[in-house]
Structures are given as C-alpha cells and as structure tokens.
Design goal:
Number of domains of chain B: 1
Radius of gyration of chain A: 20 Å
Largest sheet of chain B: 3 strands, antiparallel
Shape of chain A: globular
CATH architecture of chain B: Orthogonal Bundle
Number of helices of chain B: 16
Shape of chain B: globular
Number of helices of chain A: 12
Helix content of chain B: 40-55%
Helix content of chain A: over 70%
Oligomer: heterotrimer
Structural class of chain B: mainly alpha
CATH topology of chain B: Cytochrome-c3 Hydrogenase, chain B
Largest sheet of chain A: none
CATH class of chain B: Mainly Alpha
Chains: A mainly alpha, B mainly alpha, C alpha+beta
Chain lengths: 319, 410, 160
C-alpha cells in the first residue's frame, strides 16, 4: 500500500507539480516576461499576458505538414524527445529546498546531458527534414553545440569541484553550509549565462535559426503541433537552464520553507530570464564562425580560470 | 577544394530576408558562397508602357509609384524632364520646396535603411529605435504633403502645396531632434562591437570594381567613388546650398552604413539652409496640357543612387516614351560580385547594403531572336516538363515533386 | 573604439519611459490637416465639366448627369489612389479631401460610393435611382434617406 502511495506521489510530482504541468505554465509565463521585457526595452508596448498561451494553442490547432522527403519517424519523434528530456532534467535540480525531487551521486552529469538532448533533437529534426534551410540550420546547431557546451560544462564543473560532489542536491547542502563560498563562482556564473544563451539559440547566438538567413533553421519544415512542442521545449529549457544556474550559482535562501522559498526561487529564475532578455536586446547576431571563436577563445579560457580559482580555493581552505 | 561538395540553393524569390521578390542562385561550399547569380524580373509591372497610355498629369502619380520609399525622387526626376521639354521656368519657391521634400525623403529612407540593416544582422533593437525616430520625419511629410509615402507634391510647373511659417518651425524642431538621435546612431554604428563584427569586411567592393561595375549612390561612395549628382550636375535648389559629398574608404558594408548616417547629418544641414533661404512667391506656373515635341533626361540623386528618367514628347498630352532607370538596376550586378567568396550568413546584409528596391528595377527585357520563331503552344504537362528541365540545368531538382503530386494533380 | 552593449543605457531608460507604440485600433489616430483621405463631393457645386474624370490616373471617378444641371458622382475607392489630383483639377471646388483613412472593407461593393447630393454618400451601385433625367433628385440629406439607404447593411455611418 505504501508502495502504491509512493508511486502515486511520484507520478503527481513528475506530471503535475513541480513537473510537467507546472513547468509548462511557468515556461509560457516566462516566455511572456521575456517578450514583454524585450518589447519594453525596445520602447514598445509588447504582447498581452496570454499571448504565449494563445500562440501555443493556435499552433496546436493548426494543420501539420510532414515533408514528403523527410524521415517520418525521426521527424515526428524529435519534438517529443526534446520536450521529455528537458522536463526530466528539472526533477534532479533543487528548486526551493535543499533537496531535489530525486537525487543520486552524479546527477549533475545527467542533468547536463539531459539538457544537451534538445539541441541534438533540433539537429536530428532539421537534418531529417531534408530541406536545404533545415539542413544548414541543423549543421549550425551542431557546430554551436560544440562551441557552447565546453564553457557551460566547465563553469558548472568548477562549483561541483569545490563542493567535492557530483550531485546537485549535495552541492546545495554544501553551499548552504558555506554560503560565502558561492562568491568564488561569480566568473563561472557569467560564463554559464553566456553559454546558456548559446544553448537557447538566442541573439547574439541565434545563427542556427537566423530568420533573415535560413528562414527558421532546423525548424523550417515544422508546423502545427510539433512546432508547438519544439517551441515549448525551448521555453521550458530556458526555465530549467535558469533553475540550474540558480541552484548552482545562487544557492541562497533554500531553507526558507515552501512558500517563501518558492517565491525566492521564482525571483531568481525570472532575474536570470531578465538578464538573458537584456543580452538579446543589446547585441547583433554573431556569425557561426565568430560564435565558435568567441566560445573557444574567450568562453572556455575564462571557464578554465574559474576552475583554477576553485581548485586553489579548495587547496587553501583545505576542504 | 574541387571535390568539395557543392550545393546550389535558390535564395528567393520568396525568402524572409527579401521584402520583394528577387532570385539569387547561390553555389555553396559549406557556409561559403562560391558563385552567385541574380535573376531579375519577378515584379515587372509595365509602368513604362502604362505611361505612354496616360496623360502627363496622370503619369506623375504613376511614376511616383515606381518606388514605395523614394517616391519623390521618381516624380521629381520625371517632372524635371517634362519641364525641360516644355521650357517651363519654375518659381524659385517651388524649386526650394521640391528640394526640401527630397531631403526629408532622404532622411526617412536612410533611417529606414539603418533599421533594416540592423534587422538583417539580428539587431532588432536598432530597428525598433531607428524606425521610432523615423516616425518624426514621416509625420512631418504627412503634414507637409498630405501623405506619408506617396507625397503627391510635384506637379508640372511647380509643387502642389505651400508650407506655412509654422510648418517651417516644426521642421526645424524636428531636425534638431533627429540630429541628436543621428549622433547617437553614429555612435552605435561605429562602437557597438557585435554590429561592427557583422558589418566590417563584408561585401567588399574595391574602388576599381565599383567604377567598373557602375555602382551608384552610397554603395559607390563607400568605395571611395566621389560621385553625387546633387553636386556634379546640380538640379532643383542644390546649387544654392552647401553640403559635403560623403565618401568612405572602408569599401564594405560598414563603410556603406557610415556613409548613410553621415549623409543624414548633411541632409539636416541642407534642410536648415533651404528653410533659411526659402524665397517668397508663387509655387506653380501654369503648364500646358500638351507638351511640345522633344526629349529630355532627368537626373536625380535618390537616397539609393542616381535615378534617371528619359522622356520623349510628341506634341500631344501623352508622352511618346518614358524610360526609368532606378538606382538599384545599377547596383544589382555589384551585389553578385560582392556575394562571391562571402559567407551565406552575410548574404542578407550584403543584399540589404545596396538598399535594394527590386520592383523599381524591373523593366521589360525583350529578347530579339535572329530568326523569328513560330509561336508554340505548350500543354500544361509540356510546360511542367520544360520548367523542371530548366531548373535541373541550373542545379535545382524538383523531380521529387512528381512523386508527390504526380500527373494526376493537374 | 569598440564598446559592446553600446545601447545599454538607452534600452534601460526605455523601461521607465512611455512606449512609443500605441494600442491601435483601440486608440484612435487622427491624421494631420489636409491629409489626403477619402474624397468628398458636393453636387450643388458641380458643373459637369468632367475635368476630374480626365485627370484621374486610375479612372476611379465618374460624373453622371442626373437632371437639369445636376450631377452625381461615383467613386470607386478600390481604384482611388488618394492623389487628390481631381481636387486640384476641379475649378468649382466641388470635390474635397477628408482625413478619413480607415477605409478597408470586406465587401468590394461597399468601396463604391455614390454622391447624389452634398454630403450624403450612398454605398453600392444597386442603390442608384433607376431613372436619370426625370427622377426627382433628393434635395437634402433627409430627403435622400429613404431612397438611397434602401439596404441598411450598406449604410455608412451618417456624416457630421
């Protein structure tokens, strides 16, 4: 009986709160915050609060066209895989308490991989669309993956090294015990923010889906429901990415209890979303070669510096 | 390199980067453009022929609609040619007003271009701000002429509307606002790192190539070609005002952006000088409905470059022949040259850098055969086969559509 | 001099300033004086010289004789390019421009406007009086009511 209850609770957590349903609502709301802020930064009024919901419903209701030449199976499967992997990633991230829903030693690596899967599905979906613009977009997606993943991994790795654990939950406990140590990771936070822009394919790193160059990149051939799922996956990825950054780099106030902790969590996530929005307002799109140069020549070395700082700190503090 | 896989991609006639139908066939090796071809003619409207069917007064409004952005340039160019044939002496005030509208139009066109350039490189914030400020001059044009785009200011023998002293004051205030904003945009264009990264060393056009390929307007001036009809062959009131012809030696898209923003500053100064010197008097002289036989060429420095209209009159109230050469026609060959050896990612901004206006450009091209061919009648199937073959020869294969739609789809 | 994020101050200032865009069409927009919008025709002034018809670049305007020295005017607003050359050509100032610019219609017939008397446009050719010369032409807007506004769905809002 207890077993069944535990499974039901787990199912509720995964599907409703803080899993799928909650995540969809927050993600769509975050999309509105992003668009609204983007508009206000550009001196425009911006869309009403329900616009992302309306867009989602509109896309779901629309006819879906699968290209004749596309690999049907891959074409149809990839949006669902993208959506599933980002939702799963959230379950291992501590949100407003010290403990994530599920945790095991090594879940940092799992979360990072789960967050990589959407990018891979963008590539696969685009590649198997067999359309010229999709394939160019897919190739760029993959190139970009190799550019931003290194700085992102390195910058997440550094705080984990300091905490001497591969589990996000354990990291959160460690930084709760030593809140001042989070200050060591400021550089890593900046690198991770920039790398997250690359992961989310947002300006200035949006060349994989640059509208004026290659229509919509990997998503060119997608329409209707599956495009809606892809877009939703990107919105959720933004929330999950922001939650990950908040958990790793801003591990404050996790013991405040459920209500205050929840509010603080939302504040942290939306603050990160606001920074991402500000960055996309300020810059022009980098060409893919410029993007790779930037990530390898600036992003990766700076992340290495972060790693060194944490290693030295570890030695000096004797932890 | 030779065995590297080459891909032909059709860029247009429908593509998000192009606001008008135009086709570029690109041969790609990876992200690099190995060869580029331009194909015109998707937007032929038969304007020249239509001009021959209408009276001069009706033609005024027709040629004004050659271009949706530099409408005043076409109508002024046409009306100057007609007035030359008719031997009309235009009142000084009318000439000044024409020049005034011309410069206001240049301001709106260059601000528009700056926004479009920002959009093409994914810098939408620049687009939003420049277009917001462009509204200042658009509102001004609407108040002065009665419309935002097709001003309808010119008539044969002068201009249709006078301006009041209050309006002159409004213009001066607007110029101050815009000058301050343009200073800011000069700062953005010359300092914002990501923007410079995307504009510098892109779409290179050397001085020699610019001269050889006959580039005009800011495209040529950014390659150091010191050429401007306003100074070289002054029309309207340009003799009475002093201004610098802006040139630049960057020879790339960045140079073209710099030329345009600096030209904005010159335009503000010209507008101020015109308003200061604005003579009193009538704004029209009576023009005959029938224009005596003769021919003339109108030249005009439009925001995009030199605009040329040729008009031949035969003594009736309708022209015998009107020929329009929009500046984009002169620049479109330059684009094919500039695209070569560039990146696919730079294609939109290179095309946008000439500030293209493709529908203005499209004129009829008649292919004269040495031996006249008998007329052929093609059935639908034959026409489709012909079309598929035509594209296959150029490296684009549509045969898979046969499988999709088959013959039954007809 | 390179300066990444050059527009930072400008965009942050926009956060607190009023947006430049407006909630059109919830907010009404007025055009400047003498904006070339929809045409207006005054039958009393028209002398039937048809100069407007001759100069119209698109043939959007038609003047018909409907009685002794009385003329009606048909304007096809789908053809009209709002250049107002007819207003310039008219020697008796029977034609005028209004600032009205929200003229989009789903029904093409609604774009054809007929003026029988000063300031009372009736829409749609089917509303024309059947007879021409012998028909009693309405003298005032009130008189025009029953005859020209036969189809209430085609009614324009009454003009001030």
């Amino acid at each position: 009986m207890d077993d069944v209850l535990f499974q039901l609770t787990a199912l509720f957590h995964v599907l409703v709160f803080p899993g799928f349903v909650f995540l969809v609502l927050v993600a769509l709301f975050a999309e509105w915050v992003d668009r609204m802020l983007y508009a206000r930064l550009q001196n425009r009024i911006g869309p009403p609060w329900f616009q992302p919901f309306a867009d989602f419903l509109k896309l779901v209701a629309k006819q879906e066209i699968v290209p004749e030449l596309a690999d049907k199976g891959m074409f149809k499967l990839t949006p669902l895989v993208a959506l599933a992997s980002v939702v799963t990633a959230l379950l291992y991230i501590p949100l407003w308490s010290h403990d994530a829903l599920f945790a095991f030693p090594g879940d940092v690596i799992v979360v990072m991989y789960l967050l990589t899967i959407p990018t891979v599905t963008f590539f696969l979906g685009g590649w198997y669309s067999r359309s010229m613009f999709s394939m160019i977009g897919a190739a760029r997606t993959l190139m970009q993956l190799f550019a931003y993943e290194i700085p992102l991994f390195l910058s997440i790795l550094a705080p984990a090294l300091l905490a001497n654990t591969w589990s996000l939950t354990a990291m959160s406990h460690y930084y709760a015990a030593h809140p001042a140590y989070a200050a060591f990771n400021v550089i890593g936070f900046c690198v991770a923010l920039v790398a997250l822009l690359g992961k989310l394919e947002r300006v200035p790193f949006d060349s994989p889906e640059a509208e004026t160059e290659i229509v919509a990149g990997a998503f060119t051939e997608y329409s209707g429901r599956r495009l809606a799922f892809f877009r939703l996956a990107i919105s959720i990825e933004m929330i999950v990415g922001a939650s990950l950054l908040a958990a790793v780099f801003l591990p404050f106030g996790l013991g405040l209890g459920s209500v205050a902790g929840f509010v603080l969590y939302l504040v942290k996530v939306f603050a990160i979303v606001a920074v991402l929005t500000l960055m996309r307002t300020l810059f022009a799109r980098l060409r893919i070669d410029q993007m790779i140069n930037f990530c390898w020549k600036i992003g990766a070395p700076v992340a290495f510096v972060q790693l060194l700082i944490d290693l030295i700190a570890k030695g000096a503090l004797g932890v | 390199m030779a065995d590297r896989r080459r891909v032909n991609i059709p860029f247009g006639p429908q593509h998000p980067a192009l606001k008008e139908p135009e086709s570029f066939l690109l041969t790609l090796g990876g992200e690099k453009i190995l060869a580029a071809g331009v194909r015109l003619g998707y937007n032929h409207r038969g304007i020249e022929k239509a001009c021959e069917e209408r009276t001069y007064i009706q033609d005024l409004y027709l040629v004004e609609r050659v271009c949706g952005i530099c409408s005043h340039s076409h109508s002024t160019c046409f009306v100057q040619a007609v007035e030359e044939i008719a031997g009309l002496q235009i009142p000084k005030r009318a000439v000044y007003l024409r020049t005034l509208i011309a410069e206001l139009e240049r301001i709106h066109s260059h601000l528009l271009w700056l926004g479009v350039a920002g959009h093409e490189v994914g810098f939408d914030t620049l687009l939003m701000y420049t277009w917001r400020d462009r509204e200042v001059v658009m509102d001004l044009l609407a108040a002065l002429t009665g419309n935002r785009v097709n001003y309808g200011m010119n008539t044969i023998g002068g201009v249709r509307r006078d301006i009041t002293p209050e309006q002159a004051g409004q213009i001066l205030t607007a110029m101050d606002v815009l000058e301050e904003r343009t200073r800011y945009y000069i700062g953005v264009v010359t300092e914002e790192t990501t923007l410079i990264n995307r504009l510098s060393n892109v779409g290179k056009l050397s001085y020699d190539d610019a001269v050889h390929l006959g580039a005009v307007g800011p495209t040529a001036r950014a390659s150091g070609v010191d050429r401007d009809v306003r100074r070289d062959d002054p029309y309207a009131a340009y003799e009475d005002v002093s201004f610098k012809v802006i040139t630049d030696t960057h020879c790339d898209v960045y140079g073209r952006a710099v030329v345009r923003v600096l030209e904005l500053m010159e335009a503000y100064s010209i507008v101020r000088q015109l308003l200061k010197k604005l003579p009193d008097g009538p704004v029209t002289v009576k023009a005959p409905r029938k224009i005596p036989a003769g021919e003339a060429v109108g030249r005009y420095e439009a925001p995009r470059g030199e605009n040329v209209h040729y008009v031949k009159a035969n003594g009736t109230d309708k022209p015998e022949r009107v020929k329009v050469r929009a500046p984009t026609l002169a620049n479109v060959q330059v684009v094919a040259h500039m695209l070569k050896d560039g990146y696919l990612a730079d294609m939109p901004i290179v095309v946008a850098a000439i500030d293209p206006c493709f529908s203005c450009t499209d004129r009829l091209i008649a292919v004269a055969h040495a031996e006249p061919r008998p007329p052929e009648t093609l059935t639908w199937d034959e026409l489709r086969t012909y079309g598929i073959d035509w594209y296959r020869k150029r490296g684009v294969d549509f045969t898979h559509l046969n499988r999709t739609f088959g013959n039954g789809a007809t | 001099m390179k300066n990444p994020g050059k527009m930072l101050r400008e965009v942050l200032e926009s956060l607190v300033s009023k947006p430049a865009t407006i909630r059109y069409p919830a907010v009404t927009v007025t055009m400047p004086d003498k904006f070339r919008g929809k045409l207006d025709f005054c039958a009393e002034k028209c002398i039937g010289c048809k100069l407007c018809m001759r100069d119209c670049p698109t043939g959007a305007i038609t003047i018909r004789k409907v009685g002794d020295k009385r003329f009606a005017c048909d304007i096809d607003m789908a053809k009209c390019i709002y250049c107002a050359q007819c207003v310039d050509s008219c020697m008796k100032k029977a034609l005028a421009i209004t600032g009205e610019f929200e003229l989009a219609q789903l029904n093409r017939d609604k774009l054809r406007v007929t003026w029988e008397a000063c300031g009372t446009p009736a829409l749609g050719r089917e509303n024309e009086p059947k007879s021409t010369a012998e028909a009693a032409v309405p003298q005032t807007p009130q008189d025009a009511g029953p005859e020209t506004n036969a189809d209430p769905k085609n009614d324009p809002p009454p003009k001030a």
